[in-house]
Structures are given as C-alpha cells and as structure tokens.
Amino acid sequence: MEKQFKQIASLIGDPTRAAIMWTLLDGKAFTATELAIAADTSPQNISMHLAKLVQADLLYAEIQGRHRYYKFSRKDVAYAIEAMASLVPNPDMHDKSGPENSSAIKYCRSCYDHVAGKVGVSIADGLLRQKIIIEKNKGFEVSAKGKKWFLDLGIDVAGLKLQRRVLLRPCLDWSERRNHIAGSLGAALLDKMLSSDWVRRTKNSRALVITAKGQKMLYGYFRINV
C-alpha cells in the first residue's frame, strides 16, 4: 500500500500532470491537443504524461474516430483531486491572479459533475436544515422525507441507487473548506439545474452563472438567497 501510494502521489505531483488533472475537473473529456494547451506543453510531452496516467488507471482514453478523448477513469479520482486542493493554504479572497482564484469560480462552479463553491455548500446546508438529507457516520444520507422531496423535484432517488456509484457523499470544497454534495444525487441535481435553466455554464471556465429563475428556485427549494 505504501509503495502504491508513493507512486500515485509522484504521478499527480508532477506539474504537467497536475495541470492535466485540474483541467479534467471541468467534467468534460479532452483531447491530447487541448490538454497540451491547458498544461502549456508540447504534444509530444503531453502524450508521455497521459500514457503514465492511463497506465496508473487514473485516466481513461476513449477513442472516437481519429481522436482520443481523455477523462478520469472513475468519479473517485475527481473527488480526490478536489479534496487535495483543500490542502492549499486558505487563498486570499481578493487575489485576482488567475481564473481559478476569481470570485466567480469560488461563488458557484462545477466540481466534475456536481455543484461546488459557496452556492454548492449553501445547497448542502439548506438540505440539512430541512432534514432532506441527514448526517450519519461522517457522511450524508437521504431521509424518508427527502426521497419524496427529490421525486417532486424530478429526481428519482430509488432509480439512482441502482447505478454503480455512490448515491450521496460529502465532498470537501477547496474554496469554502466545508462540504458540498457529490455522488449520483449531486450529479442529478446539477443536471436538473442546467436543464431547467437555473444555472448556465460559462465558456472556458468551471464557473456557473445563476439565472433570475435560478435565484427564485434556489430560494424556493433550498431556502438560500443567491
């Protein structure tokens, strides 16, 4: 176990590979060319780094036509990268040095396939206050009341439980230093917010913009002001 841990840590610790992993938190699959641009390196160099990450089962390459699209091999890899970011010393809220340090990305963003940032944490708090989800054994569970609540929202918790992934789990938010919700339920919630035009994605960023409709719905369902 110690040897394997050292291998994984050394893989992720390389600056170029760390840039690759951070870029993939967007939740989309990227080509090697796109990742080379994001990591500011050559196509030849990015190929070597991607091969190592695929071999370690951290990434998966999906072939479509002449292109290979890279993404995390499993959801847990994304959650681990987000959690690692919380180890960074608390960032200066006034730091404008880059897009990932902007107020927009801290306020509301996608963390792979679920909502993060201040709004994501507030959603988790709202669900806990209303006892739609409850804390149990250092994790989250959907209450009996919550199953009906989510069904009224158009999310079938029973159906999500049939998926081969964790239904609901806390995910440590790197900017808020508190938990938002992840798992298949967190992903379904983000899908609902996007399809219902509560939030919209922004170009070349993980920041999510909350619409006027979204402001009303987030207060109505989660009792939060945004």
What are the main properties of this structure?
single chain; Arc Repressor Mutant, subunit A; three-stranded antiparallel beta sheet; two-stranded antiparallel sheet; 49% helix
Structural notes for this entry:
The chain has 226 residues and is an alpha+beta fold. It has 2 domains: 2-73, Winged helix-like DNA-binding domain superfamily/Winged helix DNA-binding domain (Arc Repressor Mutant, subunit A), CATH 1.10.10; 80-222, no CATH class. The chain has helices spanning 2-13, 15-24, 32-39, 43-55, 75-85, 103-107, 117-129, 144-153, 157-160, 183-195, 212-222; strands at residues 30-31, 59-64, 67-72, 109-111, 114-116, 133-136, 139-142, 169-172, 179-182, 199-201, 208-210. It is globular.
